[in-house]
Amino acid sequence: MIFVKNTPNNTGVAIYGDYMDFENLYEALHTVVGTEGEFTEFEAARIRVLGVCYDIRHALMGNREIEFVDNGMDDEKKRRMSVLASDKNVYLKIYVLWPEMLFVTMALNDFIRLYGRKRAKKSYDFMLDKQNIWDESIAMVRVFQAAIMKCIKDTVSNHSFRRMMNLMNKDYTWLEGYTWQYLDILNCRFIDMEPEKRLKSISTMAKKIAECGEEYMRVKADVIAAARQYNTYEDNIRPPVDYPEDFEW
Questions:
Q1: What's the N-to-C CA distance of the chain in angstroms?
Q2: pLDDT (tens digit, 9 = 90+) per residue, 191-227?
Q3: How far is Cα of residue 211 from the mean position of the Cα atoms in its chain?
Q4: Residue 128 scores a pLDDT above 60
Q5: Of 11, 31, 91, 246, which residue is least crowded by CB atoms under 10 Å?
Q6: Which of 243, 242, 248 is closest to 198 using CA atoms?
Q7: Matching InterPro entries, A to Z (predicted)?
Q8: Contact yes or no for 150/81 (Cβ under 8 A)
Q9: Are the CB atoms for 128 and 222 separated by under 8 Å?
C-alpha cells in the first residue's frame, strides 16, 4: 500500500510502497500523462509528473532508500502457521519537495480528465464515467492522490487543510502552457526556509501554485521576454535559481 509522510524537516514528503506498489504506480502515472506530444499544451506539467516517475524507477532499481515495515507476522502466527518468515516487509522510499508534490497532485486532476476523454473518444457524455470508473490506472493515481491528501491532513492545521482541499480538488486548465520555471523558484525558496517556516508555508505554496497570481504572471512575462530576446523556446530559459547540491529532508 502506498503511503506518504511529511519529512522530519518539513522539506517535502517521503513516499513509501513495496515493489509492486511502486511498479503499479509507475505504470499508472505514465499511462495517464500520455506520450510525448500527445497533450502538447500540458507538456511542462507532464515532465514534472515524469520527474516523480524517475525517482520511482530508480527506487525499483535499488538506487533509493528502503525501510522495514511491520507486516503483522508475530511469533504466535508463525508457530500456528508453521512457517519461517520475516516480521518485516521491505518498503521502497523516495522524496519529493512539498511545492513539487502539490503541483503534481493538482496536475494529475487534469491528466485524469484528459486520459478519460481520450478513452471515451468524446469531450463528455454519460458513457465517460461508465468506461473510466473501473480503469486501473485512474484508480491507482487516485489512491496516490488520496495518500498525499492524508499526509497533508496529518501535517497542517484543520483550517489550512480545508483551504487546501478547496484549492486542490478541481481541474486546472491553467496547466496549458504552464511556466515551469515558477515551480523551480518555489522549490528553491522552500528549501531555503527554516523547518518551522516550511511547515507554515505548505498551504501558502498550494495557494501560489493553484491561483497563478501576480508573481506567477511576472515570472511568465520574464520568461516570454527572455525567449524573444534570445530567439529561443520558452522551455529553454532557465530560472534564476539553483538547487543546492545537498539539503536535509
A1: 22
A2: 999 999 999 999 999 999 998 899 999 999 999 999 9
A3: 18
A4: no
A5: 246
A6: 248
A7: DUF6904
A8: no
A9: no
- Residue for grid cell 481520450: 118
Pairing of strands 65-70, 88-97: antiparallel
The C-alpha cell 501560489 sits at: 208
Residue 218 burial class via C-beta count within 10 angstroms: exposed 0-12, middle 13-18, buried 19 and up: exposed
Q: Which three cell numbers stand for residue 203?
A: 498551504
Q: Which residue has the cell 524517475?
A: 54
b/e map 72-87, b = 16+ CB within 10 Å: eeeeeeeeeeeeeeee
What sign results for the dihedral spanned by CA atoms 56, 61, 64, 67?
A: positive
CA distances from 218 to 40, 177, 241 (A): 23, 15, 15
- Per the prediction, the chain carries an average pLDDT of 90
Question: Residue 230 contacts by C-beta under 8 Å, 6 or more apart in sequence?
Answer: 236, 237
